[in-house]
Amino acid sequence: MKKIGIITKLNKPEAIEVVKKLNPWLKEKDRDTFIDIETASSIGEKGFQRSEIPSLVEMIIVLGGDGTLLSVVRLVGNLGVPILGVNLGGLGFITEVPLDELYTTLERIFNKDYFIEERLMLIAHVLRRRERIAEYNVLNEVVINKGALARIIDLETYINKTYVTTFKADGIILSTPTGSTAYSLSAGGPIIYPTLLSFVLTPICPHTLTNRPLVLPDDFLVEIALKSESGDVFLTLDGQVGFSLKNGDVVEVKKSQGKIKLISSSKRDYFKILRTKLKWGER
How many CA atoms lie within 13 A of 127 on its CB side? Predict the structure, then answer.
């Protein structure tokens, strides 16, 4: 890997300091660097628009938290560029490399001592009067939820064209295995090993207590129709992009044709990450 992209969390001084050392180190290793324009301007280097970096490089180093990595995932799309997530934030599950292991991890990568995990993505379509009006790819989750002052909403749900139920709830989360440790986990959903070919439907505060999370094969189609008059219902993608829904709108969710490639160290231990992040075993 000779061409390396670097994208950092905006307004993160710590990230700027890391790049000041990382950029010359990579150049000493005979690597060409492509730094996002906001970060590059802070260190006196030539920068590139974030949107163009994925098409110019062979891998991308993301310095930030899970939110920063999710924003980069949308830029990469189906290009298949591997991503190395370096955690400068708080609770990071997909930015799994701690800062103090950055250089040793890069040495292993350059020595081909690493592996790539391909993570399932979902694609969501919004249909209004049977016309497709929006399309989104997500790595973590698709969420339909009501606003703070809205009443409980009715969500008529079909799986593979078969009626399941009409959830009366605050909303529904459709999560990938990668996203199972995010919002879905907070709503009572299961932790799914990140490479499993499945996704989970998790109701948010359902009116019926017997409604429980449902794990589905990755090749299933889920259709959810909004059957409430409330004008305060939103579709949220990876917690970063929002779309206002209207009564009668249908949200279709299925697996995306593309997958995101995350670079993992050969020393990676997913269960250690769970123990550390979720404080398992502590009193």
Answer: 10
